[in-house]
Amino acid sequence: METRFKLLGHPVHPMLIVYPLGLLSAAVIFDVLYVATGNGDLATFSFWALAVGLVGGLLAAVFGLIDWLAIPRGTRARRVGAAHGGGNLIVVGLFALSFLLRTDGAQYLPDTLPFILGLLGVAIALVTAWLGGELVYRLRVAVDDDAGLDASNSLAREGIVDVQTR
Asked: Suppose 128 and one of 3, 87, 102, 162 were both cysteines; which one would form an S-S bond, judging by CB atoms 3.0 to 4.6 Å apart?
């Protein structure tokens, strides 16, 4: 089942998830480093990584929802997709709360609760990332119908932006 929204022949949703996934997990790593060293610059980086990661996560969610709505009802893929998307909404919510709890200070330093929320967000993100992999690699959601070891070049088949209406 092909994705509904493509750019240069490739699904947009997987292109967009790398940034929020990387930034939100980097925020947690920098929080850990801040706790270990007390260096406030690390906490400041974490704060801004959270801000950009949250915006990216919401943008990726829009394209994920478009793809999920195209999955036939009553299928395992639809159920796994709902768990993937719902879990990621929880992840974004946890990181958003962690972000908001840091905005009252000038240095964006995380205290215990924002730190724990970030750790919990990463733990849930590992599960939702696995579910995303299950959708693509096991259930073939968003995989081009022409996919194969000798498939044609996606640029030769598609326009720059291709929105499918099936």
From this structure: 87
Q: Tell me the three-class secondary structure of the chain, residue by residue.
A: CCCCEEECCEEHHHHHHHHHHHHHHHHHHHHHHHHHHCCHHHHHHHHHHHHHHHHHHHHHHHHHHHHHHCCCCCCHHHHHHHHHHHHHHHHHHHHHHHHHCCCCCCCCCCCHHHHHHHHHHHHHHHHHHHHHHHHHHHCCCCCCCCCCCCCCCHHHHCCCEEECCC
* pLDDT tens column, 78-113: 999 999 999 999 999 999 999 999 887 666 778 889
**pLDDT one-digit tens code per residue, 137-147:** 999 887 777 77
Residue range(s) defining the domain that contains residue 43 = 5-161
Report how many domains make up the chain: 1
**What is the pTM (predicted TM-score) of this model?**
0.86
